[in-house]
Amino acid sequence: MKNRLLLTALSLTLSTSVWADFTATPQEARGIAKEAYLYGFPIVEMYKTLYTQTVDEKSPNFEAPFNQIGNTAKAFTARDTAFVTPNADTPYSFVWMDLRSEPVVLTLPPIEEHRYYSVQLIDAYTQNFGYLGTRSTGNNGGNFMIAGPNWQGQQPEKIDRLLRSETDIAYALYRTQLFDKKDLANVRHIQEGYTVEPLSNYVGEQAPAPAPTVDWPKPAPTMSDTPDLFRYLSFMLAFAPAQSVEKDLLGRFKKIGIEAGKPFTLQKFSDEQRKALEDGIADAKAEFAQFKRNKVDTHQVSNGDLFGTRDHLNGNYLYRYAGANMGIFGNSAEEANYIGYFVDKDGQPVDASKHDYTLHFDKGALPPADAFWSLTLYNAKNKLLVANPLNRYLINSRMLPDLKLDADGGLTLYVQNKAPAKDLQSNWLPAPNGPFYGALRLYLPKPEVANGQWKMPLLTPVNQQQ
User: Fold this and answer.
1) If 371 and its partner were Cys, which of 73, 98, 118, 444 is the partner (CB 3.0–4.6 Å)?
2) Cα 10 from chain centre
3) What fold is seen in the domain 335-464?
4) CA distances (Å), origin 361, targets 298, 364, 456
5) 8 Å CB contact between 39 and 271
6) Is the whole-model pTM more than 0.85?
7) What is the rounded CA–CA span in Å between residue 188 and residue 184?
8) Neighbours of 275 (CB within 10 A)
């Protein structure tokens, strides 16, 4: 394909591949399948985004070939479906990086001090291994080298920082703050200054030999919810050299046929073996549902706990799964704090076909953030933005001058399906006619968020306002 960097020679062709074996008993296989599903789901979900953004040139979500940048100089809308729980405040730029032949250099331009921007660096496990931008490197720009796990060279003097990925395939996800619709031209100009190039090109040396090609498997409709996930997991593990802390875990996976670079097929297995894998996946989903209900929905576990480095996650694959399931590619806590609104003040799932809701901030108690805050609503059925006649998907701190304050100086937002009274519509956040959830994002959150000094308000059904 044109301009495509060739990748490692892998194939799913039966005639040229050595199959992994299934050696576990059905009872043992069920437990291993549960582990493998929680472990592998984020990797496979990431692959789905990789495929649609950089492999499938016919996809409406295609962005750019490997090691090239794709810019989206618009705010996300309900028509965008590349990944769940998108952020409509910060137009994205995207680079899918192949780091096996050589590192790549990401160049950032200087931008104005009052605008937030970041480049989130994500490995194939969905772990955030580094950041560039306002918080981490400032708004003065620079040249930053991203290297894979096997690169042995030296950092050139004119590189500002070297960051390493554990995996050969990695993702650079750029966010550039958009102030309002009139600001799109400014965001587009900033995005034009984002560049990516191979290290050899940057330093003016001869390029190393390109890596050979790979047969990228087309995503299947059931790949995230059935044992078919293990086929894609085996495929993607070939780009992720085994970490010493996971060798025992990966050794257990081999007992059910999951092995890096080796094809996985259910057709090889007996009905009893397939049933064991399906039961293990069901066990994993049940554990997540209980965890979400008891820990996430009650805010005992925050989104900041679910995203971050390998050291931060510390082998908690349930947390990593939860992050990918509810909003893949979430920021680390120091970059942004996410508060999920899945239930109301009484712990009941929010549903705009049953209730209208309010969200009230006391005077002086707006979300504390050094960059900005934003509340975005999503349709719970598809985890995408909510189509509505106003094309309003969020309310953020930049909109405060246009919002109506309460008599006491507080702020009340109206979260409902049908429009409120005309004098309240500036504060209306349209909800679907059914279940939904909200994400309150605080970019560069202040210390009072982490230490618990600031208390988040809860959604209140309107019939409880009396």
Assistant:
1) 444
2) 26
3) Jelly Rolls (2.60.120)
4) 19, 8, 8
5) no
6) yes
7) 6
8) 15
